[in-house]
Amino acid sequence: MNAISRTLGRLVLLSASVGCVTDAVVPLAYAPVGDSPIATAVGDATIVVDVRDARRLAPTWVIGTMRDGMGRESAHVLASGAPAAAVREAFTAELTRVGYRVVGPDDGAAEPGARTVVITLRDLWTDHGQASTGALVAVVDTEVRLRQATGDEVHIDVVGRAAIGTPGWDPIGDVSNAAIADWSRTVVRVPELRAFLAASARSAALDAR
Amino acid sequence: MLSHVACGATIRRCGCAFLLLALSACAVTTAPKTNLRASQTRTIRPLHLQVEVAEPFSVRIAREEPDYAAQMGAATGGALGELIGQIVSDVRQARADGPVESQLAPFAASYDLRARLESELAAALIAEGVEIAGEPDTDGPTLAIDVEEWGIRACRRDPERFSRVAFRLSSELRSPPDSSFHWEWAPQPEFGRCVLPEDYMSTPARLPAELDRAVKQLAWRIALEWMYP
Fold it and tell me: Which one of A65, A80, A207, B44 is separated from B92 by 20 to 30 angstroms, measured CA to CA?
C-alpha cells in the first residue's frame, strides 16, 4: 500500500509538474484520542510544563518544505502558530484530561512543590516529497527532562513520526498534526513519564490529607 | 544482497504500477486502528505473545533521502520512465547504504532482537497486570508483532550523517475471544538521539546498548498501545 501511495503520489506530482509555488499555512492542533495511559491525578496535582523551541531553522514558523514535480524545494510549510505552542498544547491536553493541572514556567514559582517537565523541541519538520517511507513524512523530535521538586532530573528522548497520504490529495497539515499526535501518544507511554506523574499525584494526595 | 533487496523493492513497485489502473486512492497511516477499549483488553487472558523478525539489521540513511530519479524518468518517459528511474534510484541508494551497513552489521550480528523484544514486551505487559500465557497456543488470543525492518535510519536534521535506531513493524491481535475485538497497529517508531555512524564503530558496545534502550522503549510503547488503545 505504501508503494502504491508513493507511486500514485509521484504520478499526481508529475502530471501536475507545474509544482507548488505558494507557501502552505497549516493550523497545528491536537485532540486526545483513545484511552489515556496516565493514572488519573488525585488531589490538586500540578505539573509545570516548559516547552522550548531549539530548532535550528529560522524563522521559527517554518515547519517543512514543499517540492515541485522534480523534487525541488519550491515553497515552505508554515505553522499558523508557534510550533512549540502546538507541542505544549498536545502535552497539556493529555495531562488535563486525566485531572492534572498544568501551569507554565512563569507560574511555576508559585508552585514550589510542583514537578516540572521541560520539553526541548529539537525538530518539527514535514517533507512533502520524502520518497522512501511515504509521500508525506513529518517528524517531531524532542528531549524531555523530568525535573523533581528536589531538582533531580531524568532525560528522555521522544520522537513522533507520521507518514501519510498522497501529495496533492491530502492536506499537508494532516501529516504535521499526525506527527504531533504520534509524539504525544509516545511521550505519555514512556514509563519514566508515567512514574513521574504518578509520583506527583501521590504527593498531591498526601498534601491534601 | 543489497542489490537483491533493491530489486525486490523494484519488482514490488512494478506490480504496484499495474495496480494503479484498478485503484483510485489509498492512504497509509501510522495511527492505530482499533475498536478495543482499555477495559476490554483486560478481559483478554491469558494473552499469547508472538514476535517475528523478518529481516536482519539494516542501515537506511541514503534510502531515507528523497531521490528524484523516478520523477525525472517519468518527466521524460511517463510511467515506464518512472519505473526505470525507480530501478536506478533503488539500486543507487541501496549501494550507498551498503558500506555503512556492512561495517555496522557485525556489531548487531549477535543481537537477538526477537528474544529481546519478546522478553521486554512480556515484562511490560505483566507490569501492567496482563496475564501472559506460558505455553504457545495458536488458537488462543495472541498479540502478534512482526518486525518488518530494524536498524538505523537517517535523522532529518542532517540525514547524510546522523542516524538513530528505528523500526517498522505491524502488530495485531489474532484469534480474539470475541469477533468484535479488533486491534492492529503499524508504526515506524524511532528512538534515541541522532548520532554519527562512526560513533557506533568507535565504541563497539554502543550499538547494542542503543538497541537495548530502543527495544525497551518499543516494548513499552507496544504494551501501552495495546493496554490503552
Answer: A65
